[in-house]
Structures
1.
Amino acid sequence: MTASQPAAATDTARPKLAFRPLPVPQVDVRGFWGDRVDAVASRTAGILYDRCVEARMLEQIDPDRPSPGVVIPFHSPSPDEANTQGAEFTGSTVTTQMFWDSDWGKTIETAAYSLYRRRNPELEKKIDAVIDMYAKLQQPDGYLSSWYQRIQPGLRWTNLRDCHELYCAGHLIEGAVAYFQATGKRKLLDIMCRYADHIASMFGPEPGKKKGYCGHEEIELALVKLARVTGEKKYMDLAKYFIDQRGQQPHYFDEEARARGADPKAYHFKTYEYNQSHKPVREQDKVVGHAVRAMYLFSGMADIATEYGDDSLRAALDRLWDDLTTKSLYVTGGIGPSAHNEGFTSDYDLPNETAYAETCASVGLVFWASRMLGMGPNARYADMMERALYNGSISGLSLDGSLFFYENPLESRGGHHRWKWHRCPCCPPNIGRMVASIGSYFYGLADDALAVHLYGDSTARFEIAGRPVSLVQTSNYPWDGAVAIEVEAEAPIAFTLHLRIPAWCRNAALKVNGKMVDLGAATSDGYAAIRREWQKGDRVELDLEMSMARLFANPEVRQDIGRVALARGPLIYCVEETDNGGGLHRIALPREAKLEAHREPNLLGGIVTLSAIGSRAETENWGSDLYRSEPPATEQTTLKAVPYFAWDNRDPGEMLVWLREG
Ligand SMILES: [Zn+2]
């Protein structure tokens, strides 16, 4: 295995201040994230491959096997029937879905990042075989879609609105880039370059080309990755075209529907808000529709804003960010309350028990936030990235890396548990690839600056002005807020180190080589900047008080009024039945109750729990009445809370984030 470095970035307009993430292999994580990455590398990556095979996905992509759509013709949906969760073809023994190429793409990507952590020749061989199948499947003109080649031949590019065609290409591109970087093997990268060339020959502003874009965004951010790894500007320009074209009139999805003889108004989701094509992206100011699609679109927009120095895109992104984070975000960093559209509803509508809050959507928020940081360090984005990372996204993966949540509710009566797999298996490989690549979210590197976005025991290697520098973080974060950073440069080198001071932290102290830094003077946009000539042995000490906090929701959130959520540092907490008994709704936490933190090294892989004295409404003396004129008696109880991400890893039972206050 050789770690190939990406080629020089494209020579598109490249703002000097762009902060780029470090490639995955340049950051070794230990501690909290080390455990998570180990779980993915040792278990999840192999499980993803096995589950894809068990779901019979190989049968869809392997040209040497009979097509499942041909073997058992039972019902093959027309492009207009294929419009909700992605079309399904169900024969008597085989179910196949139009987005399975995307699951392979994400599975390949997870495997690729995992190979950095842990060599796995057996898994690599299996992935190579999948890539060989795609090589055989690819058509001479470069086209590649297992659905349109094997299940619905003859219909390619007839329903971009519903059928995930470019979305699947995007995920395969991301998988190809990651696999090339991890193994040095170019085969899938070359396949996807040929496919991207074909796509560029079909779509674009030139006369005769289609003026379309995908109903499920993803191709945009994938083409940016492809442009960065190959140095080919045309891929970046195509990504920009898809973003610029979205929502323009005449509306592509209207014209496309008419072209296939369908009524554009017969759209299952009624409004193009569902796929964020209701208006041009620069005119959008509300986060609407399908949550994952929105996050992927905004991620692509942020990439293009950074690459082209496009302030009009940035202004739109800031409006959308404000809208999401002030009106439609769960305290866990989950987004999209509704199962109906897998997305957003109305302002302040944040039901807890029925929260959809798809794992992929929180992962998508991490993607978007991390790309906003490409435009410069700003804790407004990094704090949110941290919240989604530590709470609403990694809750989607069991601690051992083997089971998955699709929905991430904030309250459960005991019936919500992780799945071994899901009929629509988008979330497992999404959380897998995010965790396995966590190192790349830690830092942003500019020409003469390094921003530290995340803290945690880790070592990073990078170059500034062509000179190698390493940065070693020693910390027990997020359980403890003390972070020691050693900068090791072979020769003295001047650059600015930006350190995030999280908004949740009430007291922070910063020292450089033992000398206190005036944080007030050094900090802007939530980052303290230290510019100096760094010498071997320089040591930075950042002490972030791991503040415990009661959080309250805006009173417009009807589901949370009179309730309180507990947090410590970046972690949101919940109570579980296994620690507190059943009937969690009967527990109340008084405003004045003292919160205590307890280190529990033997619980859930080593966590800090919170406890407080609260009360519980008694049921014993209530009798059989449904209603009474007197309130129930209460008894004192000690409540114990665990980090939300770790729930449902022990005995099944109830769970609650928003506790009653009183
Ligand atoms: Zn998902």
2.
Amino acid sequence: MKKKLLLHICCGPCSLYVWKKLQTDYELCGYFFNPNIQPFGEYEFRRLELAKIAERFAWPMVYAGYDLNDWFAAIRGFEREAERGARCPVCFRFRLERAFRHAREHGFDTVASTLSISPSKVTAQINGQGQALAEKYGVGFLAENFKKKDGFLISRREGEALGVRHQDYCGCVYSKVERLLYRRRSSR
Ligand code: SF4
């Protein structure tokens, strides 16, 4: 019998490669918990893009709530950090912790996340938080680096073929501002 794995999914396009890679070894359920995505319109857009993919491939999914206030409380004091800096591990932990709680309450053996597929995220930050939570909750964590072997590129291509767009900033308002400033500097 396959082990039950709860896959934390950050967005639809990133899930395509990871789901296919894991589905032969695990019984999968997707878990969308990302109140780091702002504004709410963008959050809904990414959630609905994922829902389209999940429906098409008949993936079981859980969509957890949009706990925006709790997310801002969690990252308080780290607002001025750059993307990939000290705010991101706190954000990863906040999201993954909810997945671990769900996993323990619903009898999953393991948790994994699509987060490491992004070239702009530090894999060690994600896996460090996942491993600490695995100890805390007594549920396994699959420490992976899905961007290896062109994972991101493949996922992006598959997303485009299905007509789903990859977002152009990580998610939080700080990463959105950072991206806008970067674009403005590059266009000068
Ligand atoms: S840049 Fe991305 S990972 Fe870092 S805090 Fe913002 S949403 Fe979270």
